[in-house]
Amino acid sequence: MPEKSLKKKNRFDRLVTYLKRYRRYLIWGLAAVVGSNVLMLINPYLLKIAFDRMEKKVPPGDILMIAISIVVLALISGLFRFSMRRTIIWMSRKIEFDLRSDLLRHLLKLNPSYYYNTRTGDIMARATNDIEAVRMMVGPGIMQMSNTVVTAVVAIGFMLYLSPQLTLYALIPLPLISFIVNRLGMLVHQRFTKIQDYFAVLTSKVQENLAGVRVIRAYNQEESELASFSEHNKKFIHLNMQMIKLDSLFFPLLFMLAGGTNILVLYYGGKGVINDSMSLGTLVAFFSYLAMLIWPTIALGWVISLYQRGTASLARINDVMNTEPAVRSEPGALRSKDIKGKIEYRRLNFGYNGTPVLHDINLTIEPGMTVGVVGPTASGKSTLVALISHLFPVKRGLLFIDDIDINDWDLETLRSRIGFVPQEPFLFSDTISNNILMGRETKDFTAAQAAASAAVIDKEIESFPAGYDTILGERGITLSGGQKQRVAMARALVIEPRILILDDATSAVDTETEHLINRRLSGEIEKCTALIISHRISAVKDADRIIYMEKGTIAEAGNHEELVAAGGRYARLFRMQLIEEELKKM
Questions:
Q1: What is the CATH number of the domain that holds 376?
Q2: pLDDT computed for residue 175 by the predictor
Q3: By residue range, what is the domain housing residue 279?
Q4: Are residues 365 and 457 located together in one domain of the fold?
């Protein structure tokens, strides 16, 4: 199968899966489409009978019965039409829900590097506008397409029965309509793809401006950013105006062709009535069927537009969904075994996108040990500890947890036993207590208080008017840098981790608070294996073992006394920080 055809086929596989999941709604909806249209399409034929009988001067009662029949059929058809919308539109909303949920679930599994290379606005555009376009395709799109097909088949059948010659005249414009629909449909697809791509650019610009609003104000760049956004906005409007030109051309063309068809039918049908080769009732019924065909013909253009937009958006969604997570749980991965906390690196080499970061790392950390990691910026400290949570792919035989290759651990099991406080903590727009208890299945308020106390943030939280129920702003913006770090530390402690990773977790607090945190954490750290990354020697000097990293390698290792006595890099850093502390006291 050619690559292009295979890609097109695979593009709809996911959508077919959702349609199968809700096939009951789809089947009932299509049945309602048939019922609604067939009943409505009987009415023009009843009109023919009524006009023919009026020409024969039948009793008024006979005409009344036909009128009542038309009303009854219209009411039943209306019930079918309600059922049609009730099922097909519901189906589309359920598919929208599942697709958005699956998209988010998949995004949460992707490698962190995916987010480094993809704009947040682009992801948001796919999760909003693109999913809505897909919903319109599988909801109103399927409904109107089936309406069009059923109406066309039944109406043309009646028209052929009434007058094959008039039907031929009525169908003359069809090849031209097909050509216009196909040609303009392709243009719609191309332009809508450009619109969606640029909508991602626009969304990213807004997201960045709102996230960095304090920086923009600090540098007095409001007008500059507004001008930049205006340019993007104009480009987006220009692309939409091109789409509007297509829409404004499409429907008038269809109406013009429909009007031409009416003229042909009126001319030849009128001649037939005058010549007595056709009854007036037949002409009235034929015009009724022709009028019923005009809307589906016009709706066909709308449906084609929905299809082109939907397929363009589906392709963009599939680009994300077809991106394989770089790290995933292998079949049969270890789930039930409790983690003791032993960590072992065996001649580990690691890099990002072909750039080496860690070189020949050999390190064994026994359960319950506390290991301090120090070194200059960009020496590989954060990467070293990030691998423990298996955030990045690691080749087999290089990293072991409890003597088991990290690739053999189930990700959920592994990560649920690791408490991790990153350099830049992320807090959610929620209450402080919910932020702290994020990793716990049960919301134990007492546990949140105990964790906050260990992180030396309890008194400050209690001083807030709403206490632990205080709602934080986006990314915890209502807290200071040090407060955010300590709330994140409490979040890591509350899950009672077997492995605790503190990646420069006290960089934003003062030295006095850091000493208090270290004292309170000592009891918690004794319960688990701990890795503490810090630029301050004071944060790691009591660790069982300290490693000094430089250029992705372990340059020195030992306890505080051993490293100071060795007089190497660690000792120089220690003396420098002692001098800084003395100068601050002066």
A1: 3.40.50.300
A2: 66
A3: 7-321
A4: yes
CB neighbours of residue 434 within 10 Å: 16
d(CA 353, CA 404): 26
Widest Cα–Cα separation across the chain:
122
CA angle 263, 49, 292 (to 5 degrees): 40
Exposure letters 110-133 (e unless 16+ CB within 10 A, then b): bbeeeeeebbebbbbbbbebbbeb
**Of 332, 421, 319, residue with least CA distance to 107:** 319
Residue 197 class from Cβ within 10 Å (0-12 exposed, 13-18 middle, 19+ buried)? middle
Q: What pLDDT is recorded for position 12?
A: 81
Query: What CATH number should be reported for the domain holding residue 300?
Result: 1.20.1560.10
Distance CA 550, CA 536 (A): 16
332 occurs within a structural domain: no
In a 3-state reduction of DSSP, which class is residue 11? helix
User: Has residue 462 been placed in a domain?
Assistant: yes
**What is the chain's mean pLDDT, rounded?**
83
Rounded to the nearest angstrom, the gap between the alpha carbon of residue 282 and the centroid of all alpha carbons in its chain is 55
Same domain, residue pair 478 and 396: yes
* Tally of domains within the chain: 2
My answer on whether 178 and 279 are in the same domain is: yes
Among 287, 321, 355, where does a domain finish? 321
Same domain for 308 and 357?
Answer: no
What pairing do the DSSP bridges indicate for beta strands 355-365 and 529-533? unpaired
Q: Are 482 and 524 in contact (CB under 8 A)?
A: no
Residue 405 lies in a domain: yes
Residue 91 has pLDDT above 90, yes or no: yes
Residue-wise pLDDT for 365-391, tens only, equals: 999 899 999 988 888 898 899 899 888
Query: Same domain for 305 and 405?
Result: no
What is the chain's alpha carbon radius of gyration, rounded to the nearest angstrom? 35
CA distances from residue 398 to 79, 304, 364, 416 in whole angstroms, order as listed: 67, 54, 12, 22
Give yes or no for a contact between 563 and 556, defined as CB atoms under 8 angstroms apart: yes
